[in-house]
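Quick one:
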Amino acid sequence: MAAQTPHTAHDQLQADLRLLARRVTDLAARLDNWTGNLDPAYGDRLTSLQSSLDDLRDDVDKWEQVEIGIPTKVRHLADEIDSFEIDFRAVTETSAPDYELAMDSQVRNWKSRLDAVRLQGVLGSMELRDELEELGHRLEHARAGVMIELQNVLHDSGDVVVDLRDDVEEVLTDVRHGLERAYAAIFDR
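Output:
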C-alpha cells in the first residue's frame, strides 16, 4: 500500500470531517425531535462534539504539512460520535428487543474503549520504562566519569572539579525530572 501524499491525506481528512458533520447534524435533529425525557447532559455532549468538529475543521484548513495529531483527533472524534449515538439509542429505544440490542452495543463500545485505554497504559508504561532505563545508563556513565575524574583531580586544577560538578548536576536534574514524570504517570492516572 502506497503512502498518501500530504494533499491526498488532507483531502481524506476533509471528507472524513464532512461525514462526521453529517452525523452530528443527524444527532442534533434526533435530539431535537425526541419527545421523551432526556438528561440535559446529552445536549452538553452534542455541543462539545460540535465544538470539537469546528476546531478540527479549523486545524485541517490551516495545516500545511502532515501532522500525526490531526488524524488521531479525527479518529477520536469519530469514536466520541459513535459513543454518543450508542448512548442516545440506549435511552431512546422503546421496544424490549431494540433496547436489548442498544444495551449490548453500549457495553461492547465501552469494553472496546476500555481495551484502548489499557493498551495506551501499557504502551505508556513501556515508554516510561525505556526512559528510566536510559536515565539509569546516563547516571552510570556519569558515575564512571566522576570516578575517573576524581582519580585525576589531585593532579588537575580546581576548574575540573567545577566542570565535573556541573556535569553531575545536569545528569541528576535529568534523573529527577524522569522520576517525577514516572511518579506522575503511575500515581496521577
